[in-house]
Each structure stands twice: as C-alpha cells, then as structure tokens.
Amino acid sequence: MPTMNLLQAINSALDTAMAEDDKVICFGEDVGVFGGVFRATSHLQEKYGKARCFNTPLVEQGIIGFANGLAAQGSVPVAEIQFADYIFPAFDQIVNETAKFRYRSGDLFNVGGLTIRTPYGGGIAGGLYHSQSPEAYFTHTPGLKVVVPRSPYQAKGLLLAAIRDPDPVLFLEPKRLYRAATGEVPETDYQLPFGEAEIVKEGGDITLVGWGAQMEVIQKAAELAEEQGIACEVIDLRTLLPWDADTVVESVLKTGRLVVSHEAPLTGGFAGEIAATIAERCFLYLESPIRRVTGLDTPFPLVLEKEYLPDHLKILDAIRESVDF
Amino acid sequence: MTRYCHQPSFMTGDEFSMATFALLDPDGALHEGAVEPRLERDHARRMYQAMLATRLLDERMLAAQRQGRLSFYMQSTGEEAAIVGATAALDDADMIMAQYREQGALMYRGFTIDEFMNQLFGNDLDYGKGRQMPVHYGSRKLHYMTISSPLATQIPQATGYAYGQKLAGDGQCTLTFFGEGAASEGDFHAALNMASVHRVPVIFFCRNNGYAISTPAVEQFAADGIAPRAIGYRMHAIRVDGNDALAVFEATRMARRIAVEQNQPVLIEAMSYRLAAHSSSDDPSGYRAKSEEETWRLKDPVLRLRKWLTAKGWWSDDEQASEEERLRRDVLETMKRAEKRPAPPLDTLISDVYADITPALQRQFDDLKRHIRRHPEAYPKGAKTLDLDISSTSSAEGDA
C-alpha cells in the first residue's frame, strides 16, 4: 500500500471519481492548470481536460451558485473554496439554496451531487483569515452534510463517499495536516461511512471527542494522561452532520466523563451541541461536568496563536480536572 | 492588445445608451420599418392564450386572497408579454429558472390550473408538499425549476445548469428570469462574468418593470438600465419593448440561437411595468401616482397582441368571450376543489431534508408525534394524519 500525505489522498480520491464518472467536474479558484494553491487538484486538468477541471473567476458566491445549478442539472460538481475563511460570500447559496433544494421542491429537484471542498483550521500562522473553523455555521443547517477527515486514509475514503452521496456535502480539510499527515492509503477505490464515529482508542476512565486536525492534539493529550494512569477513550466523529451520538453516549455511559475539543470559539461551537445531547441522554451516569476545550471567543489571532489554540496541555488539564472532580 | 493614448480621457458610460427593439405599437400594428417575425398561427395563438389565461388567473387569485381564501399572491399583470414571449421562443425542453412572477411561462408550457391551485393552497397534491408560500411553483416535466424566495440566487445557478447542458451536448439552453432590482445583487454579476468566461449557453432575461417593491429604477441604478452591463462582460445584449410579445419573441429566438449555436450567453432587458402591486401584501398608492399606472395601462401587452392577432384573422371577439368564460369557470371550479383537499401528511415535515431520513431527525419526529397525541386539538393537521379524533379527545392534560 502506498504512503500518501493528506493532499495526495485527496488528489487520489478526485482522480478516482473523475476516472469513474464523466459527470464529476472539479473547479474553483486556481484549481485548473496550477492544481489549486495547495495542489489538491494537481494534474486533473491535464488528465481530464479543461471542461472538467478549470479555474473560475474569483467569486465564491458565483462558484457555489454555478455548482448548485450544475448539480441540479445532473452533473457531479466538486467545488473548491480556497480557504474556509472565504466561504462566507457563498453562505446564501449554501444555506438558502444547496441545503434547501430538495426540500423546497418536494424532491422534484436536488443538488445531491454537490461536494464543496475547503481547507479549514489554524496552526499555520494564518491569522484571522486563513485559520478559521466555520463548521458550526453549517451544522446549524438541515439539508447539508458536514464531513471532516483527520488522516490521509480518511480523506480519500470520506471524499469518495461525499462525491457519491445523494446529499450535498461540505468537506472540511485540515490544512495543517495537508503535508504533515502521512499514512498508508489504498490506491484502489474505497469509501468510509457517514454518521459513524470511529473509536480511535478504547479506555474506561474518560471519553475524549473531536474531529479533523484536533484529533492529533487529543491523542497526544490522551497519551500524557495514560502516563498518569488515566485510560482515555478517544472518539473521532468524522461527520458532524449527521453526527453519531449513539457511539458517544455508549462511551460516556461507560466512562461517566466527557471532554470535547475544537479550535473554533467556545460560544455556539459544535461542542455545545455534543455536551447538551450527552447531558440529556447520560445525565445520571455523569461523574463530572462535561468539559469543552476550545478556542477563545475572539477572532483568530496571529502572534498569540499558540496561546489561543486548545492544545494538548489544555486538554490534559481538563482531563485531570474532570477525573479529580 | 493594449491600446495606449497619451492624453487622459475618461469614459462615462453615456456612450452606451441602448435603443429598445420594438415591433408592435400599442394598437397592435407593426411599427414603420419593423419586420414581422416568422410565427405560425398556432404558435401565436398558444402565446396569446397563455397570456390571457395568466391575466385571468392573476385577477381571480388576487380576489381569492382578498377574500381570505389564500394567504398570499403575486400578480404578473402588465408583464405577460415579456414572460410568455420569451418562453415561446425557447424549445419546450430548455430549462427555465425564474424569479417568482413568471407563472405565464408555466401556463405556456401547459401547467394545468389544477397544478397551479394545488401549489397555491399547499394541499396534498402540491408537488412542493405545502412547504413554500404561494406562487413558488416548480415542474420537472416542464423544465421549470422550483422557485426560491431569495433574489438572484437562480442567476448563477442558471449559468451552472447551462454549463452542464453544454457538456451534455443535447442542444438545450437555460433561460433565467429576474427583475431589475435583483440585478443589483452580487449573484447577477457573478453569473454574467462566469457565463461569459466559460462560454455558457444561458439567456439572462431581465424584466425591468420599473420597481423593486417600492424602489423605483432611478434609485436602483444610475446607468442606462441593465442591458449595457453585458458589454462589460463582453456579452451579447439587447433591450426590447417588454409589452410587445412579438419583439420579445423575436429577440429571445435570436438570443437562443446565439446561446446554443455559438455557446455564448446573452442578456435581454425587457422594458415593462408592474401594473399590479408587488404582492398581495403591498400597496403601490404609497409610492407611485395613479396617473403613471394609467399611462402604462394604455400599453397593455395582452390587448396589444390580441389586436395584432385579430387583424390577422387569427383571433375573434367571439373566441375571446368564450375563452374568458371557460377560463374563469375553470379557475373557480378548480380553486374550490383544491382548497377542500387535505394538507400534506405529517411525515412530509421531515422527508426530503436528505435523500434518507437521518436517525436524529426520526427521533425528533417520534417525539413530535407523541406530543401531538397528547394535544391533538392544538395541531389539527398533524392529528388528522395520525388518525386522532380531535372532537372526542379530552384535553384533561391541558395545553400548558
């Protein structure tokens, strides 16, 4: 099995999908001959032609509007928004159009073929506008699916699933790991399921939940906790919408303790949704308050990025406090 | 290639003042020098009948709204020629992505009065399953995209849809309708630019009816209307008398050829006037003079085409009378049928959010059903679906 980084895995997924189905079309800013600013679409124009892999003008609302129409027509668009920080001009097209297309037409029309790929997250000295994690804006929108891979293996399997899924998918790519994360990735075609969390590591003392780039941080904290004799169960949600509450519930019924971590700000973040659900369903089993370890309620900083980020030490502290409660 | 000059020279845009293409005068006679488009008798009659039927449907449904039978309505009165004339110039399999006031396009393509009514009353036969406000029609078989309220979102979608048609190579194109107000949205500019860059067979059809709710066109843009904007995108454009069905038909017919044969987008601006209110919730007396409306009534597009047809011997006063009577009766009887039909069943609340219902949503729905069983009187439509007898249910638990 070849070793790939996360970008190569994404490129492999796009290549696989485009080879299999003529209707798959990739586009976005700089996506064509250049292969995207991160090179996720490298060589695709060369291989499949300019009609199926091309640059668009610099207009996010246009890219997603175009993609919605193309998907409604029966094509399978994979639209790239260069940074998740720049997805907001397309917010109306995503929230009011993409997400509601099937419902409002009574299933006469749908844009289920659409996948929106976009790099998200901090840790790359990107400041306010190359670092954000906007997932919670979209998890609040019924009709969308929101997917976040943490590794090259997941990236390929989840992206292929997203492209073939009958519903529109927002695919958030952890750009800090684009080249940093490497692993074995099958060259063959495979898919990973939506709505099913992955138990990365079993443990009986406390449950740690996250997704995407934050999983690396959570796993590091879990290792440090192990050294202190605390057995952590680590869960990667993989998809946030729909999210696999049952797996988290089952884990917390066993451990009685929960820490959720994401880079996005605390207030209104997706950890709040998880905490509320677990409080409802596991109330009598909880040994300590559910903890959220997240970014602060500030814009994403630059020089003080390290201080802002929910790193392994902050998670370790939360684990300790939860266990010692 | 860059062309240099060595004295500063500014352009104002006044260079781009565009003429309005017109064939019929308000009396239905050809303007001097105008050439009648090639239009078969049956085709012309189909156009007129759709315009007339739309006019009558609008009149009756506004009255129904005033009677409290309907929550909301939007008339297209005064713009029938622009809408039907454009539709008649398309292939019936071309996609139409409309704004919300284009019921004439559906009428032309054969949407039945029953289909209109089922949507307006949001009953169990509504294709949209009672989810959208009245006039948000859609028809897959008639290639008419379901309407969505946000303005201008359909314009870049039309570019994308038409790009797919170009790749499919089926010789079809997409026409998108929008108002001169919606053309202020960013989506409009995104759509035109992308269509021109990627050579997409799409027709952008602007209904310039003078008003965006109460805002007059002079407060919407400073330039000479919408059509000259196409020049900035290196796109074909034409301005046409929107109350002249023949001119609209001919302009759109030619635009379609440019779109399909040359893979080039075209912008059409139809100059018209919204004779009625913006919607049933609007009252134009607060922002425009009756006298202004009267001058436009004299340019009535339905009457104009009727006069032309009559002069050609393709329509008669007798036919007019019998057609009006038939349509009025049909609308009335159909409305009575549609308003008596039941609401869509309760499970349409959660279907079509996704292709398959998610477990989390199913759980929410099960909770809702349990709640409705406890308080059926409070939710009569849902209780009916669940076969709960509302009248005999005691409200011992109370509604608190």
Automatic annotation (TrEMBL), chain A:
SMART domains: Transket_pyr (SM00861). It comes from Vreelandella malpeensis. Its EC number is 1.2.4.4. This is 3-methyl-2-oxobutanoate dehydrogenase (2-methylpropanoyl-transferring). Residues 4-180 form the Transketolase-like pyrimidine-binding domain. Keywords: Oxidoreductase, Thiamine pyrophosphate. Pfam families: Transket_pyr, Transketolase_C. PANTHER family: 2-OXOISOVALERATE DEHYDROGENASE SUBUNIT BETA, MITOCHONDRIAL, 2-OXOISOVALERATE DEHYDROGENASE SUBUNIT BETA-RELATED. Its cofactor is thiamine diphosphate. InterPro entries: THDP-binding, Transketo_C/PFOR_II, Transketolase-like_Pyr-bd, Transketolase_C.
TrEMBL record, chain B:
Its EC number is 1.2.4.4. It catalyses: N(6)-[(R)-lipoyl]-L-lysyl-[protein] + 3-methyl-2-oxobutanoate + H(+) = N(6)-[(R)-S(8)-2-methylpropanoyldihydrolipoyl]-L-lysyl-[protein] + CO2. It comes from the Bacteria. Residues 49-345 form the Dehydrogenase E1 component domain. The keyword Transmembrane does not apply. Its cofactor is thiamine diphosphate. Keywords: Oxidoreductase, Thiamine pyrophosphate. Belongs to the BCKDHA family. The branched-chain alpha-keto dehydrogenase complex catalyzes the overall conversion of alpha-keto acids to acyl-CoA and CO(2). It contains multiple copies of three enzymatic components: branched-chain alpha-keto acid decarboxylase (E1), lipoamide acyltransferase (E2) and lipoamide dehydrogenase (E3). This is 2-oxoisovalerate dehydrogenase subunit alpha.
